[in-house]
Design a protein that fits this description.
This protein has six domains: 9-84; 93-207, OB fold (Dihydrolipoamide Acetyltransferase, E2P) (Beta Barrel); 213-359 and 435-485, no CATH class; 361-422, no CATH class; 491-537; 541-687, no CATH class. The strands form five sheets. Strands 1, 2, 3, 4, 5, 6, 7, 8 and 9 form a nine-stranded mixed β-sheet that branches. A five-stranded mixed β-sheet has the order 15-14-13-12-23. The longest helix has 28 residues, at 390-417. It contains 23 helices and 23 strands. With 688 residues, it is an alpha/beta fold.
Length: 688
C-alpha cells in the first residue's frame, strides 16, 4: 500500500507543490511581507536545499530535502504575491503628491442604486505645478448618477480627475462585509467618488482588443435578449446563464437560488464549459476520420473554449474550467493518460502564477472544491445503486453529482454564507436540466438572431422556461425547513470539518480503524467547541450600537435572544439589515431575532442600568449612574438644565446630521461628559 501510494504520489507533481504554494500566497495576504524579505527567505531556502542535496545522499534523508523544497515553494508563493501587490511599488500613485490623476477606465460602467461604478488604472499623477509622473495602481471609481456620465464614459477612455481618492474604510460594524479587504485582495487600495465637474475626458482611449471585443459581444447579446426575451428578470437570468453577468438579477431571485442550493447555475462554471465543449465535440465529430483531423479539432476546440472564456470576462470558475479542459485536450492529443487531480492542480498553479489574488475569490474556491468532490466521490456514490432504465440512470447521475459536489463545498458554504440547503437534491434534479435547456435555447437565439421569426419563438420559449424555473425555485424555498441559515462557524471549524470528511472517506475506501478513530476524535472536538460556544452565547448579555448610514439601530443580546431596535425604515429594509447587522447577530448564537421599532420615546430596563431613547425633549434629572442615553436626530436637549455632570454614557447615533452631531459633541466636551460618537468609532458594544 505504501509503495503504491509512493508511486502514485510521484505521478502527481503539481498536487505536491500546489499546497505549499497556496499556503505561501495565503500567508502573504494576511501577514505583511516586503519584497526584499520574501526574496531573502527564498534565497535562504535555495541555499538550504542545495546544501542538503550535497551532504545528504541517503534516501533516508529524502524527507528532509522534501521539506526544504516545500519551504522553497512556500516562500516562492509569498514572493510572487508580494511582487504582484502594486501598493508596495515605488511608482504607485499613492506615493506621489498630486492635484490631478490621469486614469484609464478598465471596464464598462456598472449601475448601482445611487451611482455608477468602474475600475480604473492610474496612468499618471500631476502636481500643482503641472509636473507629470508616470504611475501605476488600480482605483475603484464611483460616478455621480448622471446621464451625461453614463452616456459619455466607456471602456478604455482616459479621464483627468481630481485627486480626491481615499483608502477604503474598514468595516464599521462587527462581522460586516470587509470591503476594504475585498478590494485589497483584488489589488485595489483606494476609491474615489466623482461628480460631473470632477472629471474631464481627454479624448484619448486605450483599449485591449480582446476585452473590447468581449464587452461589445456582451452588449450585443444583451440587445438580442432584450429584443426577443424582453422581460427584465428573465433577461437578467439569461445573461447569467449565457456569459456569467449576474449584476442585473433581482436580489430576491438570487436569495431563492442560494437558499435552494442552485445558485451555481447562475454562475458560468465547469458545467457550462462542459456543455460548450460537448457541443463543439459533436459539431467537429467528422474531423475524427480525417488526416490531421485530431490536431485540427483540438486547435478549433481550444480557440472556441478560450473565446467563450474571454466572452465571460475570464471569471474564476470558467477560467479554471477552460484551463483544465485545455490540458485535457492537449493530453489527449499527445496520447497521454491525464490524471485529473494533477490536471486540476496544474490549472490552479498556472492561474495563480498569473494572478495570486484569485485564490481569495469565493467562486474560484467553490469551483475547484466542487470539481474535486465530483471527481473523488461521484463514482463511488453512483455505484451504490444500479439503475435499470435510462431515465432513472439520468436522475441517479445528477443526484450522485449533486451529493458529491455538496460534500466538498458545504463546509466553505457554511463559512461564507452561513446556510445549508436541505432540499439541494430535489432542486438540482429539476433546475439543472431546465437551465441546461435554457442555455441551449439562448445559444440558439444568438446564432439565429438574424432570423426574426425563429428568434422570436426561441426567445418566447426561453422566457417562459426561465419564469417556470424561477417559480419552482421560489416554491421550493417556501417549503418549511427547506434550508437553515444563521449557522456561524470559524475557519478552524471549517478545517476540522474538511479533515473529518477526509478521514471518513479514507475509512470507507480502506476500512482502517485508525481513520475512524481520527474521525470520532474530530467529531468530539467539534462538539466540545460548539458546546462551549453555545454556553457562552446563552449566558452572554450585551448591547451593541451600530453605525449604519442615516439610521439609528442597536441590538440587545440576552439569554440567547436578540432584541433588535431600529428605525422602521431600516427594519423593513432586509438588504441593509443583512449587510450591516445580521452576521453579527448570528455570531452571537441568537436563536430568535425580535425586531422592534424606535419611532417613539423609550426607557429600556437593562440588567444593571437603563437605556434612554428619547426623540423629544430629554430631561436629565432622572438619569442615574451607568445609564446610557442614545442621542438621535430627533433628540432635543436643553443643556441649561444640567446642574451637575451626569455619570452616564451618551451615544451619538449614526443618523445625526453633521450639524447636530457637531453641536452635541461640542456641548458634551464642554461639560466633560463621557460620550461615544458612532460616526467616529464605528459600532460600540457594552457588556451587561
Amino acid at each position: 500500500m505504501n509503495t503504491s501510494f509512493h508511486s502514485y504520489w510521484h505521478q502527481v507533481p503539481f498536487v505536491r507543490i500546489i499546497f505549499p504554494f497556496i499556503l505561501g500566497i495565503g500567508s502573504s495576504m494576511f501577514v505583511e511581507f516586503s519584497y526584499s524579505q520574501a526574496i531573502i527567505m527564498m534565497l535562504l531556502n535555495i541555499s538550504m536545499f542545495g546544501g542538503l542535496s550535497l551532504f545528504l545522499k541517503s534516501y533516508l534523508h529524502d524527507w528532509i530535502k522534501g521539506l526544504a523544497l516545500n519551504l522553497f515553494i512556500f516562500c516562492f508563493g509569498i514572493a510572487l504575491h508580494v511582487s504582484q501587490k502594486d501598493i508596495l511599488k515605488p511608482n504607485h500613485f499613492s506615493k506621489h503628491k498630486s492635484q490631478y490623476i490621469e486614469v484609464r477606465i478598465k471596464e464598462p460602467l456598472l449601475e448601482r442604486k445611487k451611482s455608477y461604478k468602474a475600475l480604473a488604472e492610474v496612468i499618471s499623477a500631476i502636481d500643482s505645478m503641472g509636473n507629470r509622473q508616470v504611475c501605476i495602481g488600480n482605483l475603484a471609481i464611483y460616478f455621480q448618477k448622471d446621464s451625461i456620465i453614463v452616456n459619455n464614459i466607456h471602456y478604455g477612455d482616459v479621464l483627468l480627475i481630481k485627486s480626491n481618492y481615499k483608502e477604503a474604510s474598514p468595516p464599521q460594524n462587527p462581522y460586516e462585509f470587509n470591503y476594504k479587504r475585498y478590494l485589497a485582495f483584488n489589488n485595489i487600495y483606494h476609491q474615489s467618488y466623482l461628480r460631473v465637474n470632477d472629471l474631464i475626458k481627454t479624448g484619448k482611449s486605450y483599449k485591449n482588443v480582446l476585452f473590447d471585443f468581449s464587452y461589445k459581444a456582451q452588449n450585443y447579446f444583451k440587445e438580442v435578449l432584450n429584443k426577443f426575451v424582453s422581460s427584465k428578470t428573465e433577461v437578467a437570468v439569461s445573461q447569467a446563464l449565457l456569459y456569467g453577468y449576474d449584476d442585473d438579477i433581482d436580489a430576491d431571485v438570487v436569495k431563492a437560488y442560494s437558499n435552494t442550493g442552485t445558485l451555481h447555475v447562475l454562475a458560468v462554471s465547469g458545467m457550462h464549459v462542459g456543455i460548450i465543449f460537448w457541443i463543439i465535440s459533436k459539431l467537429l465529430l467528422f474531423l475524427d476520420k480525417k488526416r490531421w483531423g485530431q490536431l485540427i479539432k483540438a486547435f478549433i476546440s481550444l480557440v472556441l473554449l478560450w473565446a467563450y472564456s474571454l466572452l465571460c470576462g475570464f471569471s474564476p470558475s470558467i477560467l479554471r474550467a477552460t484551463v483544465m479542459f485545455s490540458f485535457m485536450i492537449i493530453g489527449k492529443l499527445c496520447k497521454r493518460d491525464v490524471n485529473i487531480y494533477n490536471t486540476l492542480a496544474t490549472s490552479a498553479f498556472v492561474i495563480l502564477v498569473f494572478d495570486t489574488n484569485i485564490i481569495a475569490n469565493v467562486g474560484f474556491q467553490l469551483s475547484y472544491l466542487a470539481v474535486l468532490g465530483i471527481v473523488t466521490f461521484q463514482k463511488r456514490i453512483y455505484d451504490w445503486y444500479t439503475p435499470k432504465y435510462w431515465i432513472t440512470n439520468q436522475i441517479w447521475t445528477i443526484t450522485a453529482v449533486s451529493i458529491a459536489a455538496q460534500i466538498a463545498t458545504f463546509p466553505i458554504g457554511l463559512l461564507y454564507f452561513h446556510q445549508f440547503p436541505f432540499c439541494f437534491l430535489f432542486s438540482n434534479l429539476i433546475i439543472i436540466p431546465l437551465t441546461t435547456i435554457i442555455l441551449f435555447l439562448d445559444i440558439g437565439l444568438m446564432v439565429l438572431s438574424f432570423w426574426d421569426w425563429t428568434a422570436s419563438i426561441i426567445g418566447f420559449l426561453s422566457k417562459w422556461l426561465i419564469i417556470i424555473t424561477n417559480k419552482i425555485v421560489m416554491l421550493v424555498e417556501d417549503i418549511p425547513y427547506s434550508y437553515i441559515n444563521g449557522i456561524h462557524i470559524s475557519i478552524a471549524e471549517t478545517i476540522m470539518i474538511y479533515l473529518l470528511i477526509l478521514y471518513v472517506f479514507f475509512w470507507f475506501i480502506q476500512i482502517k480503524h485508525r481513520y475512524l478513530r481520527y474521525a470520532l476524535s474530530l467529531c468530539f472536538t467539534i462538539s466540545v467547541y460548539n458546546g462551549y460556544e453555545s454556553f457562552v452565547n446563552q449566558t452572554k448579555k450585551s448591547i451593541t450600537f451600530y453605525k449604519i448610514p442615516k439610521a439609528s439601530a442597536f441590538n440587545i443580546i440576552q439569554n440567547g435572544v436578540s432584541y433588535f431596535y431600529a428605525d422602521s425604515v431600516l427594519i423593513n429594509d432586509e438588504e441593509r439589515f443583512r449587510f450591516h447587522v445580521q452576521q453579527h447577530i448570528w455570531s452571537q448564537g441568537a436563536d430568535k431575532i425580535d425586531k422592534r421599532s424606535i419611532e417613539h420615546s423609550y426607557i429600556i430596563h437593562l440588567p444593571d442600568r437603563k437605556l434612554w431613547i428619547n426623540r423629544n425633549k430629554l430631561a436629565l434629572k432622572d438619569v442615574a449612574k451607568n445609564d446610557i442615553i442614545l442621542i438621535t436626530q430627533r433628540t432635543f436637549m436643553d443643556f441649561n438644565e444640567i446642574s451637575n455632570t451626569p455619570e452616564a454614557l451618551f451615544i451619538l447615533s449614526s443618523d445625526l446630521s453633521a450639524r447636530k452631531r457637531q453641536y452635541f459633541a461640542n456641548k458634551l466636551k464642554e461639560l466633560n461628559i463621557l460620550f461615544v460618537d458612532l460616526n467616529e468609532t464605528g459600532a460600540h458594544s457594552i457588556a451587561l
